Amino acid sequence: MIKEVVIRQKEEMETLLAKPYVPRSRTRYAEKFAGDEIIKVVTGPRRAGKSLFSLHFLRKSAPAYANFDDERLITLKDYDELLKELHACYGSKKQLLFDEIQNLPGWELFINRLQRQGYNITLTGSNARLLSGELATSLTGRYVPIEILPFSFMEFLAAEKFELDSQKNLLPETKGRMLGLLEQYLVNGGFPEVVVKKLEPKGYLDTLMDSLILKDIVKRYSVRLSAKIYDLHGYLLNNFAAECSFRRLAARLGFKSVTTLEKYIGYLEEAYLIYVLQRYSNKAAERLGTPKKIYLVDNGYVAAAGVQFSPDRGRLMENLVFGGLLKAGREPNRDLFYYKTRNGREVDFITRKGQAVDSLIQAAYNLDAPGTKEREVKALIEAGRELRCSNLSVITWDHEEIMKARGKGKEINFIPLWKWLISI
To answer: Which among 256, 279, 308 is the end of a domain?
Structure first.
């Protein structure tokens, strides 16, 4: 039986490699470690392209491959039986690629043993926290994490065969086409199969979300109140990019305790469905006690859920900016936060370098609405003064300007979303 699984998975791998491929921005980084003995750990949401990414950056070494999303492999009692069949199929390979490793019970001991035996190992996993926790305790100092998220805007443009040329972007027809593509990216998101195969998010991503909740949360953690996790996920899908008090949310959704709600939110984070962003404060205890903001791993989830007849373009754009910051390497609640001034003015994102705040960013889809521009500027200036930061930006749909705030000695950079996305 194991032999049949290994042979079939090899055929599937060869089929995947033969298909057209959109190069990912992390490829060069990953290739630096391809020949090293250090374990490569590729994490990210399901269907974001981890497997194909790994197969391509390891292409020269042609690794032996096993995918532990197959229930026949995760019920193995003797893991050496799998190793034997991999060698029978691939020869005396020392390069191994194991997909969705978190499904294999006791995988840490098995991987540690293989590394001691001189194997060059690459792992993929779709569990954000649990996988990193297991790695931290079991593979300390012997692995390199590589996160693969849905397509960035540059990867999306490559998939659409849109060649970026700074001079051509001055032409109205070229810029118009790019803004049309940006609108598509804003609404449908960047999951590879949605982009490449032109799939409608509803039908593909809603099925994916249901599968993630059932397989990666309800079954994995034996969740008794499964209806609650679906209610919670639905609420957060409908209220992304907005402040959220966990205490009030627990009462609203009928959770018996805030602790249970926080545990369920943690499950949604682990499954790469949402991110929780803290409000910035110099004091960690204060950050934990303030309301949080919820962001989605991909804008396509909003269209897929069909929870809003007319999705709020402003919040979709804010979520897109959050995703852009993630793909640029920012880590939520470590060097990426949101902020509220002493007067209650909100700044969508602040980024840190070390202990110093190095940028303040607002996302504003429509500056034509009365008072919008003034509100965004006031919040940035006030926050800049409080946090001693002069790098102030407003990301807009298509407005570009450098504005000097009167009497404040501050410059605010208004930058179009497309230009910001291709620059980070």
So the answer is: 308
